[in-house]
From TrEMBL:
Its EC number is 6.3.1.-. It is an enzyme of class 6 (ligase). Residues 17-113 form the GS beta-grasp domain. Keywords: ATP-binding, Ligase, Nitrogen fixation, Nucleotide-binding. It comes from the Bacteria. Residues 120-456 form the GS catalytic domain. This is Glutamine synthetase family protein. It comes from Mesorhizobium abyssinicae. Catalyzes the ATP-dependent biosynthesis of glutamine from glutamate and ammonia.
Length: 456
């Protein structure tokens, strides 16, 4: 829960005029920052204790439409308030916004001030506590990919998101020359995130024209999820200020590579000093604990896929030959695999889950990986032998759910996730998934019009 700005530092900065605005933000179901802009002096004097928001914010779709049918919030219940409790340990200055600081808030019940169970941050906190109770720390890192465009969001909208001018005209994967042309945004993104307390290791070109990847240094799971959502929000704001735009869609163009969010994860001792997955004498140098953790993630991958791929568009990314996985298996350093073992033979040994797209909510994704890993440990599961070869061409491997509808049904039947998250929490997100499917099923797409307007 580490920001880079203490409350005492904030008070001093407010008093001398360095900070005049504080963003108090929750994370919604879509993984976006939502909240209020406070006059900094008022935040320091009063609102740092708590503020309030409408509970429909965790019961609406991506268009901010209130969705009927949730138990937690509805028109019949009047869409009342919940408490937004600033976690002052997350305070940080935002260099890309003038005289502005940000704090992430926990979402609490308005009556008893308990964590609201279906809040994404509360879901992850519960799984982190399960790790802590066993003497573990979960270290996570999410690699975010996105497309950068020489378009404003307004110009992209006016083009109906078609024929956009990407930041580079051809694929520049790892190429320094082409990515130098994108440094106006990328240099700011690296340096200003670092200044905001989000340590950046590197950025690079990815496998699409104008596609970028930025890597944040690993951290404890809750810290990493906080970093992830601030990075996504800040990247769009920085790009917008430069007259550019960014898309984190899993698959914005059928013919181009999708945007992933690979998630690296491992367990360490409670003091953060001893890697619990490394055993130099074990097969693959992966300890028994690490093997059981990985086996749990493999066993339950179909059940938690929705937490890694929450939209209709998410499933367009899973195409053979695109560096996006299609099969549920693990392998040693093999990018056709759904799960890849990284850092073999070192203290940094870890599993990389390659299923998730850049459209995921990190709190939900991390929580699902923790829950399934712990289930693997509790069930003492044995890790299968690693797959060798091209997983795209292997016919007998279990497949990642092909559609949102398939993933939703797997989630709805998951006894493991209901036990780990609570039945009401799982039902809340199943309802979210089914609404997304319903909204899509009744819409007419450009593809349908192109094929059928004249020819049907």
């Amino acid at each position: 829960m580490a920001g880079n700005f203490s409350f005492d530092q904030l008070k001093k900065a407010v008093s001398n005029g360095e900070i005049d605005t504080v963003l108090a933000c929750i994370v919604d179901m879509q993984g976006r920052l939502a909240g209020k802009r406070f006059l900094a002096q008022y935040f320091v004097d009063s609102a740092h204790g708590e503020t309030h928001g409408c509970n429909y914010l965790l019961a609406c779709d991506i268009d901010m439409e209130p969705v009927p049918g949730y138990k937690a919030a509805s028109w019949s219940k009047g869409y009342g308030d919940f408490v937004m409790k600033p976690d002052l340990a997350t305070l940080r200055r935002l260099p890309w916004l003038e005289k502005t600081a940000l704090v992430i808030c926990d979402v609490l019940d308005h009556h008893d001030h308990a964590d609201l169970a279906h809040s994404p941050r509360a879901i992850l906190k519960r799984q982190v506590k399960r790790l802590k109770d066993r003497g573990y720390i979960g270290y996570f890192a999410s690699e975010l990919e996105f497309y950068l465009f020489n378009e404003t969001y307004d110009s992209a909208r006016k083009k109906h998101w078609q024929g956009l001018d990407s930041a580079s005209p051809y694929i520049g994967d790892y190429q320094i020359g082409i990515t130098t042309k994108e440094e106006g945004v990328m240099r700011r993104l690296r340096n200003e995130m670092e200044a905001a307390g989000i340590p950046i290791e590197n950025s690079k070109g990815e496998w699409g024209p104008g596609q970028e990847e930025i890597n944040v240094r690993y951290a404890e799971a809750l810290d990493m999820a906080d970093r992830h959502v601030i990075l996504k929000n800040g990247a769009k704001e920085i790009a917008d200020s430069e007259g550019k735009s960014i898309s984190f869609m899993a698959k914005y163009n059928y013919g181009l590579a999708g945007n992933s969010s690979h998630i690296h994860n491992s367990l360490w001792s409670a003091d953060g000093k001893t890697p619990l997955f490394f055993d130099k004498n074990a097969e693959w140098t992966l300890s028994t604990l690490g093997q059981q953790w990985a086996a749990g993630q493999l066993k339950y991958a179909k059940e938690f896929t929705w937490f890694l791929a929450p939209y209709i568009n998410s499933y367009k990314r899973f195409q053979a030959g695109t560096f996006a996985p299609t099969k549920i298996m693990w392998s040693e350093d093999n990018r056709t695999a759904g799960f890849r073992l990284c850092g073999e033979g070192t203290k940094g040994i870890r599993m990389e889950c390659r299923i998730g797209g850049a459209d995921l909510n990190p709190y939900l994704a991390f929580a699902a990986l923790i829950a399934s890993g712990l289930a693997g440990i509790d069930e003492k599961l044995e890790l299968q032998k690693p797959f060798v070869g091209d997983a795209y061409q292997a016919s007998r491997l279990p497949e990642i759910p092909k559609t949102l509808r398939d993933a939703t049904e797997m989630l709805s039947k998951s006894k493991m996730l209901k036990q780990a998250f609570g039945e009401d929490v799982v039902e809340h997100y199943v309802h979210t998934a089914r609404w997304e499917q319903f909204e899509y099923d009744r819409r007419i797409t450009d593809w349908e019009l192109h094929r059928g307007f004249e020819r049907y």
